[in-house]
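Weekly modeling sync, notes
Attendees: S.R. (lead), two postdocs, one rotation student

Agenda item 3: backlog of single-chain predictions. S.R. asked that every request posted to the team notebook include the full sequence so nobody has to chase files. The rotation student volunteered to paste the first one in as an example of the format we agreed on. Action items at the bottom.

Example entry:
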Amino acid sequence: MQVKSQQVKSKQRVADFGEVYTNEREVNAMLDLVADQASSPEKTFLEPACGTGNFLVEILKRKLFTSLRLSKINKSQKRPLYCQDSYEFNSILAVCSIYGIEKQPDNVDECRKRLLMLFKQHYQDQFPNSYKPKCIDVADFILKKNILWGDALSLRNEETGESIIFSEWKPIGKRIQQRNFIYSKLVNNQISSDLVGKKADDGNIPQQVFDSVDDYPPVYFLELGNDRSF
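Predicted structure, as returned to the notebook:
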């Protein structure tokens, strides 16, 4: 089963919102220009007008393929064996790395569903008899935090009317720490030129440049979302 994409929902939506989505061929051609980043489970992607997720779906496909490759534990091409725990962790990191903002609420719901369907199908295809429903629940929890109903121009959450807040999911061993950041402060923060040029060991701008609004204790990755209201 494939996660289908479309370019237009209706002529009326094109007239009302200018809503036209990029087709799969063009999406992949653009992603091929940044193939290494698009395939890495931990490299972050934000789509500020994500629509129903045409870009994000293709990015997640690539990241899940890499997650599977990283979990391979033998050299056989005909009968490859994979470490399920390794795949689960890397595939959850892949979901953690994908962010989207979309102004139309029905598109937000569809985008989340398409991404979750892709994750679930890929996971169950690899481990049909041993997949964990909890792992799928964790992916669902993260997608609800990362794919938001908002306005990328006003930087406000359309549901709450407040500033958009995104969560960073930082891996610490097999645990993940959630840290929340106000998106407008990330966008508007004026970083000095010496900091822009100086990157941390992982290739990212040093985290101390930005102040989080909430820091949560690290938890085992399959426990994300347990008894939490955030």
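Discussion: group reviewed the output briefly. The chain is about 45% helix and 15% strand.
Action items: rotation student to repeat for the remaining queue; S.R. to check formatting next week.
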